[in-house]
Amino acid sequence: MGSKKVKRRLTLAARPSLRKHPRPPKARTLMGESFSTANFAGPLVMQHCQECGLINYPSRERCRSCLSDHFRWRATDSSAEIVSCSQIYVSQWEFFKRKVKDAPWPIASVKLADQILFAHLAVDTFSQLDNSEQNAKEKSYLLEAGTKVKVFSQSDTAKKSVLIAVSEDTDISAASQRKAIAVAMGIAE
Amino acid sequence: MSKATSNNNSVQINQQSPKRPPQGYEGVALTAPVSFGYSKQDDAHSAPWFIGGVLLNLIKQSGLTKDDIDGFAVSSFSLGVDSAISLTQYLDITPRWIEQLPYGGCSGVIAARRAARAIQAGDAEVIACIGGDASGHRSFEMMSSQFSTFTMDASFPYGAGGPNAPFSMITQAYMDKFGAEREDFGRIAVDQRYNANHYPTALFNHKKLSMQQYLDARPIAGPLHLFDCVMPCAGAEGFLMMSTERAKQLQLPYCELVSAGELHNAHSSDDIQLRGGWTEFAPQMFESAGISPDDIDILQSYDDYPVISMLQFEDLGFCEKGGAPEFVRNTDLRFDGSGPQANKLAHNTSGGQLSVGQAGAAAGYMGIVENIRQLTGTALGQQVNKPKYALASGYGMINYDRGLCSGAAIMRAVDDIKDGGRN
User: What angle do CA A40, A41, A45 make, to 5 degrees?
Assistant: First the structure.
């Protein structure tokens, strides 16, 4: 057991997981860790610049607009819209490698407060998508650009906050509802 | 708020009083094109082996010695603990001018621009520009998992390792907006494979690719299928830059740098990347050269995915924005003009990365190197018939959701056979 642990440490981030249940990527920069921690507290917490008011994402230590370092982590409205969708058939990461064996993994880039966010796409919440088993394997989950969505953060099995996009009419007001969506997608337990 | 602030950047570019045009590149020669060491993943050699291999070939080809090389520009993702400066000791060279250019697919164009100015200013006389990468076991995975702050924090955790995911979104958005079909992207890939079938260094030299094979390929991400994606590999590219006088003295076949431009993180407030920095500098670049896109005989676009070649066709002025699907339907992109279309443009004449393989940062040097061969009449089996002008375009560093670097250079063959040694 001890030697196994050492081996895993030496082989760094990109080696296939030896776990029975592999986890999503865990490595973050310090700001990524801050984002993750800040989001344990609420449905969506983002960096707000205290000088110019801009919401910054991905998280950083200087505002992309005014270069101030005066930020506050604050609850943020979850309204967003789809920029583009995709589904991954091939991944380098063991967790996703196993996911895509069953069905392509849907993700989206969404625009929230004028920032571009990548998010897992909870396809089951979109009534306009064909979520039959047949489609899951063969067709694509294409949402039109501009489709209104909600985005929230959820702690995944790597214990890091990740973003999930759901349809506009999905009720995500309770933590239990948000978690249930993530569990159904297989990224939280 | 952010719209207003981030829009400022592009507004400034467009509305500022015209910038003073850059000085020309008179008297600068590009010579000694080298493509070296292409091999598939898991090659055991290190990056210095590839870079040193190019250096050895540059010396052999030019008849110079290591001591004559007083400038050194290098790009590599796989140097690990090494850098341009530690390579000087590794290869025991003593340059008085040194550059390390970590700009991925734009590295070669930027190296040529930097080196040209150094030659003109007299900071160096003979500059070796080299891009090379090893491909150790799982090195590509390692690179994508730790590419940048933004990818680590905000794209890799979603399974979006490497550029496939962002490019599948870009390709999908491009298809939705401009009505491109998979066949349109396929035309680029299939014609490039034809070129690669005539270029012995290409890793897919021996494999033909039909449109049907392209369409039937397995899916990778969104609308991207296998032949839309480059194969990461090991390999290296390089060339020498010196004054035209020196090149003549050495009786080396050379071509000239005519004009060039670069712009980075352009259009940063666009939601998704459907244009690059080329839109801002290409008109000036062509004006400086005194030519139009119609005069270009060879275009080497950066082709990590076909859609990005389309953006370059448009942004460099070969067709209107959104016109690339029609452009590729009507244009024969083969090196020998043997395709059925009436309009001809020799494009990615060695097969590009899609058919040669993507050797890390070497891929950013490939277009320049291939253009030097073409313009000096020394292509390796797929010579375009007497080209005069060739354009090499660079695009690099897919960070998070888009590529950040754009660059391009127009190169010209030397007319006088005695001067250029052409043919």
Answer: 90
